[in-house]
Amino acid sequence: MKKLVLFLTIMFMTMSYGQEIKQIPLINVNGEGKVKVAPDQVCISATVETKGNNAKDVKKQNDEKMDAVLKFIKKMNVPTTDFKTKQVALNPQYDYEKKKTSYNATQTVEIVLKDLNKYDELMEGLVQQGINRIDNVSFESSKLAQYQSEARKIAMKDAKVKAEEYVSVLGQKVGKAFTISDNSQVYHPRPMYAAMKTEMMDASGASNQTLAIGEIEITANVSVSFVLD
Protein backbone atom coordinates (compact mmCIF):
# COMPACT_ATOMS: atom_id res chain seq x y z
CA MET A 1 0.00 0.00 0.00
CA LYS A 2 2.81 2.38 0.93
CA LYS A 3 4.58 1.56 -2.34
CA LEU A 4 1.42 2.33 -4.30
CA VAL A 5 0.97 5.69 -2.55
CA LEU A 6 4.62 6.56 -3.18
CA PHE A 7 4.32 5.60 -6.88
CA LEU A 8 1.17 7.70 -7.34
CA THR A 9 2.82 10.68 -5.57
CA ILE A 10 5.91 10.54 -7.81
CA MET A 11 3.72 10.16 -10.89
CA PHE A 12 1.60 13.17 -9.86
CA MET A 13 4.70 15.31 -9.24
CA THR A 14 6.14 14.33 -12.63
CA MET A 15 2.90 15.23 -14.41
CA SER A 16 2.67 18.55 -12.56
CA TYR A 17 6.27 19.43 -13.38
CA GLY A 18 5.71 18.58 -17.03
CA GLN A 19 2.67 20.83 -17.20
CA GLU A 20 4.66 23.77 -15.80
CA ILE A 21 7.30 23.62 -18.54
CA LYS A 22 6.31 25.75 -21.50
CA GLN A 23 8.10 25.69 -24.81
CA ILE A 24 8.93 29.25 -25.86
CA PRO A 25 9.46 29.70 -29.62
CA LEU A 26 12.78 31.48 -30.07
CA ILE A 27 15.11 32.57 -32.85
CA ASN A 28 18.83 32.94 -32.13
CA VAL A 29 20.87 35.40 -34.20
CA ASN A 30 24.22 37.19 -34.09
CA GLY A 31 24.65 40.91 -34.68
CA GLU A 32 27.74 42.98 -35.39
CA GLY A 33 28.37 46.70 -35.07
CA LYS A 34 31.50 48.57 -36.19
CA VAL A 35 32.58 52.15 -35.60
CA LYS A 36 35.77 53.52 -37.17
CA VAL A 37 37.28 56.71 -35.79
CA ALA A 38 40.51 58.66 -36.12
CA PRO A 39 42.62 58.51 -32.94
CA ASP A 40 43.11 61.72 -30.97
CA GLN A 41 45.85 60.58 -28.59
CA VAL A 42 48.79 58.19 -28.47
CA CYS A 43 50.12 56.07 -25.60
CA ILE A 44 53.89 55.50 -25.68
CA SER A 45 55.83 53.08 -23.51
CA ALA A 46 59.58 53.77 -23.67
CA THR A 47 62.54 52.34 -21.76
CA VAL A 48 66.07 53.39 -20.81
CA GLU A 49 68.27 50.29 -20.58
CA THR A 50 71.84 50.41 -19.24
CA LYS A 51 74.35 47.57 -18.90
CA GLY A 52 77.68 47.36 -17.09
CA ASN A 53 79.88 45.49 -14.64
CA ASN A 54 79.29 47.69 -11.60
CA ALA A 55 75.79 47.79 -10.15
CA LYS A 56 76.19 51.24 -8.60
CA ASP A 57 77.54 52.80 -11.80
CA VAL A 58 74.88 51.12 -13.96
CA LYS A 59 72.08 52.43 -11.76
CA LYS A 60 73.59 55.92 -11.66
CA GLN A 61 73.91 56.09 -15.45
CA ASN A 62 70.38 54.82 -15.90
CA ASP A 63 68.99 57.37 -13.41
CA GLU A 64 70.81 60.22 -15.16
CA LYS A 65 69.42 59.23 -18.55
CA MET A 66 65.87 58.88 -17.23
CA ASP A 67 66.16 62.24 -15.46
CA ALA A 68 67.06 63.85 -18.81
CA VAL A 69 64.11 62.07 -20.45
CA LEU A 70 61.63 63.31 -17.84
CA LYS A 71 62.94 66.87 -18.12
CA PHE A 72 62.48 66.71 -21.89
CA ILE A 73 58.90 65.45 -21.53
CA LYS A 74 58.10 68.36 -19.22
CA LYS A 75 59.76 70.73 -21.72
CA MET A 76 57.32 69.41 -24.34
CA ASN A 77 54.50 70.72 -22.09
CA VAL A 78 53.09 67.28 -21.46
CA PRO A 79 50.97 67.54 -18.25
CA THR A 80 52.43 65.67 -15.26
CA THR A 81 49.20 63.65 -15.08
CA ASP A 82 49.88 62.26 -18.57
CA PHE A 83 53.22 60.52 -17.92
CA LYS A 84 54.53 58.23 -15.20
CA THR A 85 57.31 55.79 -14.39
CA LYS A 86 55.88 52.35 -15.02
CA GLN A 87 58.73 50.03 -14.09
CA VAL A 88 62.20 50.18 -12.48
CA ALA A 89 64.58 47.22 -12.33
CA LEU A 90 68.22 46.38 -11.59
CA ASN A 91 69.13 42.76 -12.28
CA PRO A 92 72.41 40.81 -12.10
CA GLN A 93 73.32 38.66 -15.08
CA TYR A 94 75.89 35.92 -14.57
CA ASP A 95 78.04 34.74 -17.49
CA TYR A 96 78.96 31.11 -16.76
CA GLU A 97 81.63 30.99 -19.49
CA LYS A 98 83.47 34.11 -18.35
CA LYS A 99 82.47 33.56 -14.72
CA LYS A 100 81.58 37.20 -14.34
CA THR A 101 78.49 39.07 -13.20
CA SER A 102 77.17 42.07 -15.11
CA TYR A 103 74.18 44.26 -14.34
CA ASN A 104 71.21 45.43 -16.35
CA ALA A 105 69.21 48.48 -15.23
CA THR A 106 65.93 49.50 -16.85
CA GLN A 107 63.37 52.23 -16.29
CA THR A 108 60.17 52.50 -18.29
CA VAL A 109 58.07 55.62 -18.70
CA GLU A 110 54.52 55.64 -20.05
CA ILE A 111 53.33 58.79 -21.83
CA VAL A 112 49.89 59.77 -23.05
CA LEU A 113 50.31 62.43 -25.74
CA LYS A 114 47.07 64.27 -26.53
CA ASP A 115 48.55 66.56 -29.19
CA LEU A 116 49.43 64.31 -32.14
CA ASN A 117 51.19 67.20 -33.88
CA LYS A 118 53.99 66.81 -31.30
CA TYR A 119 54.43 63.10 -31.92
CA ASP A 120 57.46 63.27 -34.24
CA GLU A 121 59.28 65.81 -32.08
CA LEU A 122 58.59 63.86 -28.91
CA MET A 123 59.77 60.52 -30.28
CA GLU A 124 62.99 61.94 -31.71
CA GLY A 125 63.69 63.82 -28.49
CA LEU A 126 63.17 60.73 -26.36
CA VAL A 127 65.81 58.85 -28.34
CA GLN A 128 68.23 61.77 -28.16
CA GLN A 129 67.84 61.99 -24.39
CA GLY A 130 68.63 58.33 -23.78
CA ILE A 131 65.62 56.17 -24.61
CA ASN A 132 66.97 53.08 -26.37
CA ARG A 133 63.87 50.89 -26.41
CA ILE A 134 60.37 51.71 -27.66
CA ASP A 135 58.17 49.01 -26.13
CA ASN A 136 54.79 50.07 -27.41
CA VAL A 137 53.05 52.78 -29.44
CA SER A 138 49.26 52.68 -29.38
CA PHE A 139 46.98 55.24 -31.00
CA GLU A 140 43.74 55.61 -29.07
CA SER A 141 40.56 57.64 -28.70
CA SER A 142 39.69 59.64 -25.61
CA LYS A 143 36.00 58.96 -26.40
CA LEU A 144 36.31 55.19 -26.46
CA ALA A 145 33.35 54.53 -24.14
CA GLN A 146 31.07 56.65 -26.35
CA TYR A 147 32.06 54.79 -29.50
CA GLN A 148 31.71 51.41 -27.79
CA SER A 149 28.14 52.35 -26.89
CA GLU A 150 27.43 53.29 -30.52
CA ALA A 151 28.88 49.97 -31.75
CA ARG A 152 26.69 47.99 -29.34
CA LYS A 153 23.54 49.78 -30.53
CA ILE A 154 24.44 49.06 -34.15
CA ALA A 155 25.04 45.40 -33.28
CA MET A 156 21.61 45.09 -31.62
CA LYS A 157 19.91 46.69 -34.63
CA ASP A 158 21.78 44.31 -36.92
CA ALA A 159 20.61 41.32 -34.88
CA LYS A 160 16.99 42.43 -34.97
CA VAL A 161 17.07 43.03 -38.75
CA LYS A 162 18.47 39.53 -39.29
CA ALA A 163 15.81 37.98 -37.07
CA GLU A 164 13.01 39.82 -38.92
CA GLU A 165 14.39 38.70 -42.29
CA TYR A 166 14.48 35.06 -41.21
CA VAL A 167 10.94 34.88 -39.80
CA SER A 168 9.23 37.11 -42.38
CA VAL A 169 8.93 34.18 -44.80
CA LEU A 170 7.15 32.18 -42.08
CA GLY A 171 4.51 34.79 -41.46
CA GLN A 172 5.72 35.34 -37.89
CA LYS A 173 6.90 38.40 -36.02
CA VAL A 174 9.86 39.07 -33.78
CA GLY A 175 8.92 39.81 -30.19
CA LYS A 176 10.94 40.79 -27.14
CA ALA A 177 14.57 39.82 -26.60
CA PHE A 178 14.83 36.74 -24.37
CA THR A 179 18.62 36.59 -23.82
CA ILE A 180 21.51 38.85 -24.88
CA SER A 181 25.25 38.05 -24.87
CA ASP A 182 27.78 40.78 -25.63
CA ASN A 183 31.48 40.57 -26.53
CA SER A 184 33.19 43.77 -27.66
CA GLN A 185 36.72 44.16 -28.95
CA VAL A 186 38.84 47.21 -29.64
CA TYR A 187 41.63 47.43 -32.18
CA HIS A 188 44.48 49.90 -31.62
CA PRO A 189 46.80 50.23 -34.65
CA ARG A 190 50.45 49.89 -33.68
CA PRO A 191 52.78 51.46 -36.26
CA MET A 192 56.24 50.24 -37.14
CA TYR A 193 58.88 52.61 -35.83
CA ALA A 194 61.80 52.09 -38.19
CA ALA A 195 65.21 53.09 -36.84
CA MET A 196 63.48 55.11 -34.12
CA LYS A 197 62.66 57.89 -36.58
CA THR A 198 59.23 59.01 -37.68
CA GLU A 199 60.21 61.00 -40.76
CA MET A 200 63.02 61.21 -43.29
CA MET A 201 64.24 63.92 -45.63
CA ASP A 202 64.47 63.17 -49.34
CA ALA A 203 66.95 64.75 -51.74
CA SER A 204 64.71 67.77 -52.32
CA GLY A 205 64.48 68.47 -48.59
CA ALA A 206 60.78 67.57 -48.37
CA SER A 207 59.53 65.66 -45.36
CA ASN A 208 58.39 62.10 -46.02
CA GLN A 209 56.13 60.70 -43.32
CA THR A 210 56.96 57.07 -42.53
CA LEU A 211 54.12 56.62 -40.03
CA ALA A 212 50.50 55.90 -40.92
CA ILE A 213 48.24 56.41 -37.91
CA GLY A 214 45.24 54.67 -39.43
CA GLU A 215 41.90 54.28 -37.69
CA ILE A 216 40.62 52.65 -34.54
CA GLU A 217 37.95 50.05 -35.18
CA ILE A 218 35.56 49.41 -32.31
CA THR A 219 33.60 46.21 -32.87
CA ALA A 220 30.66 44.87 -30.89
CA ASN A 221 29.38 41.32 -31.35
CA VAL A 222 26.12 40.21 -29.77
CA SER A 223 24.13 37.00 -29.64
CA VAL A 224 20.41 37.57 -29.14
CA SER A 225 17.48 35.21 -28.65
CA PHE A 226 14.15 36.78 -29.68
CA VAL A 227 10.73 35.46 -28.75
CA LEU A 228 8.54 34.74 -31.77
CA ASP A 229 4.99 36.11 -31.69
From TrEMBL:
Pfam families: SIMPL
GO BP of this protein: DNA damage response
InterPro entries registered for this protein in UniProt: 26kDa_periplasmic_antigen, SIMPL/DUF541
Superkingdom of origin organism: Bacteria
Protein name: DUF541 domain-containing protein
UniProt organism field: Flavobacterium johnsoniae (strain ATCC 17061 / DSM 2064 / JCM 8514 / BCRC 14874 / CCUG 350202 / NBRC 14942 / NCIMB 11054 / UW101) (Cytophaga johnsonae)
Lineage: Bacteria, Pseudomonadati, Bacteroidota, Flavobacteriia, Flavobacteriales
